[in-house]
Amino acid sequence: MNVRRLISSAALATATVLGLTALTACSSDAADKNNEDKLDVVASFYPMEYLAKEIGGDDVEVTGLTEPGQEPHDLEISAKQTAQLENADAALYLKGLQPSVDEAIGQSGIKTKIDAASLTSMEKHGNEVGGHAEEHDEHGDEHGKEEGHAEEEGHEGHGHDHDHGGKDPHIWLDPVKYAEVAEGVGKAFAKADPEHKGTYEKNTAALVKKLKGLDTDFRNGLKDTESADKVFITTHAAFGYLAERYGLTEEAITGLDPEGEPSANRVRDLQRMAKADGVTTVFYETLVSDKTARTLADDAGLKTDVLDPIEGITKKSKGDDYIQVMRSNLTALQKALGAK
What is the predicted pLDDT for the residue at 126? Predict the structure, then answer.
C-alpha cells in the first residue's frame, strides 16, 4: 500500500514538473513574441533613456548603456553592450558627449541611429555663460581654446570636447531645446516603427506639453530675484543653455570638463566675483566630487547646495525622474538668487 502511494506521488511530481516546464516554455515563447512586437532601443545615458521611455511607452523596449550613478563621460563600451547595440532596432544618443558610444554606434549596423544633437541647435560655452557671457567671449579661456581644435583631435581629448567643434552638449537642461529633441525622437520612432506611429505621436505631444509647462515655471520662477545680475557658481559648465534661456549667468569652476581642475587665478577670480555680485551659493553635483565646490565656498564664506545636471538618477537625486529633478533645480536656484 505504501509502495503504491509512493509511486503515485512520484508520478504526480513528475507530471507537475513536466507541466510547469511546458508552462514556462509557453510563457517564455509569449514573452519573446511580445518583445518582438516592440521597438528595441538602446539609449546612451539617462536623458536619452527618459525620452525613449516617455515617447515609446509600452511599444518600446529600452536598454540604457550608462548605469545609474556612473559618470556618463567616463563610459567605456563593453563587449556585451556592443552586442546589445548590434541587436537593437534603434540607438538614441548625444554625439560628442560619450566618445566610446559615438564610436560603437558609428561602427554598428543599426538601421536607425538618432543623434539628439542633430535635432536642435547647439552653441559653444566656456566657464562663463549667460547674461554677461558675450562681454567676455573675446577673452576666452584655456578650455575654450582647446575646444576650437576638437574636430581635429577627434577622440583623443577629454571631457566633452570631442565633436561639434567643442559645442556644449548639455541641451537637455534647457526644457525648450529638450522639447525640440523630443519631437525629433518621436518622428524617428514613428518612421522606424510605423505600426505604432499614433502612440508615438500622442506620447510625444504629452511630453512636449510637460516640458513647456516646466519652461513656464522656470521663466516665471526666476523672473524677479534679489540678485540683479542673477549670477550662480557651479562645479562645471553644464547649465549654459539654462542660463541663457532664463537670463542668468553661470560661472563654472572648471568649465565644460567635469573632471577638470581650476587654476589658482580662476579660484581667486570667482571669490572676487562672488563678493562683487552678491553670490550666496556654490552649487555642486551628485555624480562628481564636491571637494572643489566646498573648498571655494568655505574660503569665500558661501553656502553650498546641489544643482543636478541630471546625467543619471540615483538615491541622492532630488526626484525620481527628469521633471522632478528639474523642479528641484528650480527651487535651489530660486533660493540662491533670492526669488521674489
Answer: 67
pLDDT one-digit tens code per residue, 149-207: 333 333 233 333 334 457 899 999 999 999 999 999 999 999 999 999 999 999 999 99
Strand partners, 281: 303
CB 39, CB 191: distance < 8 Å: no
Measure the CA–CA gap between 317 and 268, rounded to whole angstroms.
30
pLDDT, tens digit, 9 for 90 and up, residues 286-339: 888 888 899 999 999 999 999 999 999 999 999 999 999 999 999 999 999 999
From start to end of 16-57, where are the E strands?
39-43
Q: Which three cell numbers stand for residue 328?
A: 528641484
Please answer whether residues 90 and 42 qualify as being in contact, where contact means their C-beta atoms are separated by less than 8 angstroms.
yes
Top mean pLDDT of 7-21, 56-70, 289-303 is at 56-70
- Determine contact, residues 250/237, Cβ cutoff 8 Å: yes
Q: Nearest 5°: phi and psi at 305? A: -160, 170
**297 alpha-carbon distance from chain centroid:** 26
Straight-line distance from the first to the last Cα atom of the chain, in angstroms, rounded to the nearest whole number: 88
CA–CA gap between residue 99 and residue 83 (Å, rounded): 18
319's CB contacts (< 8 A; 6+ apart) are 313, 325, 326, 327, 328
Distance, in Å, from the CA atom of 101 to the CA atom of 97, rounded to the nearest integer, reads: 9
Contact 222, 339 (CB under 8 A): yes
Q: Which residues of 36-69 are buried (b: 16+ CB within 10 A; e: fewer)?
A: eebbbbbbbbbbbbbbbbbbbeebbbbbbbbeee
3-state secondary structure of 281: strand
How many helices and strands (H and E) does the chain possess?
A: 13, 9
**Four-residue CA torsion sign, 71, 286, 92, 168:** negative
pTM of the full predicted structure? 0.80
- DSSP characters over 173-194: GSHHHHHHHHHHHHHHHHHH-G
The strand ranges marked E within 65-116 are: 90-93, 112-115
